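just leaving the lab so this will be short. what follows is a protein written twice so to speak, once as letters and once as structure tokens for the fold. can you read through it and tell me how you think this chain folds. anything you notice is useful, everything is just below:
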Amino acid sequence: MVLSNETLVLLSKFSLKAKKHIGLVKLEKLFTNRQYANKVLIKAGLSEDKELIALTKMVSEQLGLNRVEVGAIEAYFNTLSAMPGRQDHIRSSKSYLTILSNYLYGIRANGASYREAVEAMILHVDTDKHALCVKTAREFYPFWMNQANLVLNSNNQAASAFDGLEVETASKLSMDMWDAIDSEFFSHLEIQSLNLYMESLNEAGVLLRHINTRRKFAKIILKELRNDNSGKLSYRKAVNKTQYLFSRHDLKEFFLSVSREFYNFWAEVGEE
């Protein structure tokens, strides 16, 4: 995993602040365990500390983790806080959204998927709390949908800057590597990590042509890892070695962004 000095400083600030309010945060697990990352970021985003909430949003944006949930929660509670006499509702809503977020992460942004998530959440709420739980879910829905659309548009706009990327990338990586990577044989575990990544991109609504470009980058990383697949350090080495094949800054930044996205899925499969 390749992180800038700025991101490392941000993570350090976040972990120190989080420790005071929600307990110890294992930074390594933020990258290797999506369920853990989801619980930590949601819990921090729902804390009472404004600085921790701000740091949580920055970490979410920098690492591309739970951007929809964190952004929607912030917008929802900003709206509630501006309304008089809603403090009791704010407190109860936080407990419900903590549960709901576990079922929202990674699902398709539509009413049917949201309804299924709410139905699953209700199973973990006392019967006498169902009405208030459903009310909170209904209030939260437009904020969640709006944030999901914002993230989707942001992903597509960023990727749109790389329309025609294959031609430009091939000239940097070499025609042989770029054109041959899709015909390369990959093991069951390698394919498993790729499939998890592709499913995540599909769920996020990333355009097919941009998914295909990201898939090629991920395959190039996997192929390089065959020279040394001993864990986190080997992944960092593979990414560092590959990034220097790009002479254009924007291409290098896009590749590094993909490497950060893919790392979570590669690490998850490696732990199984």
User: Anything to note?
Assistant: The chain has 14 helices and no strands.
